[in-house]
Every structure is written in C-alpha cells, then in structure tokens.
Amino acid sequence: MAPSRNGMILKPRFRKDWQRRTWFNQQARKIRGVRALQAKACRIASGPSQPIVSPYHTEASVGQGFSLEELRVAGIHKKVARIIGIFVDPRRWNKSTANVQRLKEYLSKLIFFLRNSAEELKLATQLTGPVMPIQNVYKKEKTRVVTEEKNVKAFASLRMARANARLFGIRAKSAKEAAEQNVEIKVKPSWGLEIKKKKKLPRCGGAHL
C-alpha cells in the first residue's frame, strides 16, 4: 500500500526471518571441530583398552567396549573393568577369543599402584601412545587367469540353493518314510540328505509240495 499525503511512514515487519537459512560459517565450524577433536585426542592420549571388531568383515577396527561374556571368560568383573581402564559395552552379546586374549595381555602389562606408594609412582612411566593399537594385515593375491569362474552358473546356483532350503523338510520327511518302509528313493547329492537304509532280512525257504 503506497503512502498517501503527509501521514506516518509505515514499517511493516511481517517477515521477521529470512526465507533462506545461510551456512556461511560451515568451513570455520569444520576447522573448529577438527581442532577440538585434536585437543581431545591429546587430552586422552592413552585411553582405555578397547576390543577388536570387524564391521565390514575384512577390516578390523576399534569397538565401543568388551562384552560381558568376554569379561567373564577373562575373569574380570564389569565394575572392576571400568576402574582399571577397560571399556565395557553391555549391548554386545557375542564372544571373541581374540578379545579375551587381548584382555589377558592387557592385564599382564598393567601395573597397579597403591595410593600411598609414592616411591613406586615416581619410577613408573606413563604410556603416551595408543593402548595396544590394531594393525590391519592385508594379504595381496597374485594375478591369475580366470578359468574356473567362467563355468560357474550363478543364477542357477542361487535358485538351486533356494529350492533346497524350501524343500528340505519335505524331502527329509519323505526320505524318512521311505527308509521305514524299505522303499528306495532317489536322493540327489545337492539335497543334503543322508538316508540310512535298513538291512533286508533273508527270506525263509518255504516247503514245496
């Protein structure tokens, strides 16, 4: 609405906020975050011991904490583990022998000091690097000619495996009934079934008139 005559100049403030949210400080926030992470890493350089996990099946990385089963096998209570510098993750339910061995090795290298033993504390050296770092070992395969893979029928193999899984119970039931009734049934090796045939008893010789 245009102003008319010598009236008051209108200042409509309907759009309080701008329509487009800006993010001009993105690069500065990135630099600040990196510096904060570096400062935190220096502050907790020798952190607690952590387990080895394989999230992508081939690459080993550091996990959130050891499972309760791993602590039980290693002979460590979950409350004591947090005191002596061992991460505990109650969400993990599996057990790894490598992690159990890692716990035992960590305990063998750990030195406990009493609060009043000032002389022993002066002689001790603090670890400044990572605690028991994980080393990924990659095995490089040699170059070879692809010969056997050309004869593999991937789609047919997948369909056969799917059919075997779907018909496993039916085939096992029919094979069991056939074994009980001494009836021969053709079983393919791809079925994954083993039929124990009963031994046939010898027939008794009857009297002939």
UniProtKB/TrEMBL annotation:
A Gene Ontology biological process term: translation
Keyword rRNA processing among record annotations: no
Keyword Endoplasmic reticulum: no
GO cellular component, as recorded: cytosolic large ribosomal subunit
GO MF: RNA binding; structural constituent of ribosome
Residue ranges crossing the lipid bilayer per the database entry: none
Pfam families: Ribosomal_L13e
Keywords: Ribonucleoprotein, Ribosomal protein
Record-stated family: Belongs to the eukaryotic ribosomal protein eL13 family.
HAMAP family attached to this UniProt entry: Ribosomal_eL13
Protein name, as recorded: Large ribosomal subunit protein eL13
